[in-house]
Write a structure and sequence with these properties.
2 helices; mainly alpha; about 110 residues
Length: about 110
Amino acid sequence: MFNLSGSEIVVILLLALIVLGPEKLPEAIRKFGRVYSEIRKISNGFQSEFKNAFDEPMRELRETAQLTRDAVLKPLQDEPESKKPETEKPEISNPESSPSSETEGDVS
């Protein structure tokens, strides 16, 4: 959360020891630990509520998309073969066997 390295923590603890003194430092660390844990609980609760708030609309959106997909695809799948339009395949000519390539070379 705070992204502190070990040396930074040591410097902060030394400064706290100098400012608070050895008598008050243990109690200050305990208070900081309690406050930090409360902040984490509040943060986790907020994240959980936020996730739950978005899960329901997302689930409904997925269901609607699935129903729409089914409504579109089902008639296409049920359509008989005779009603489907036939697509013509274009003939692929072989350039080696075409008559125009044989006559182009002869100019006599």
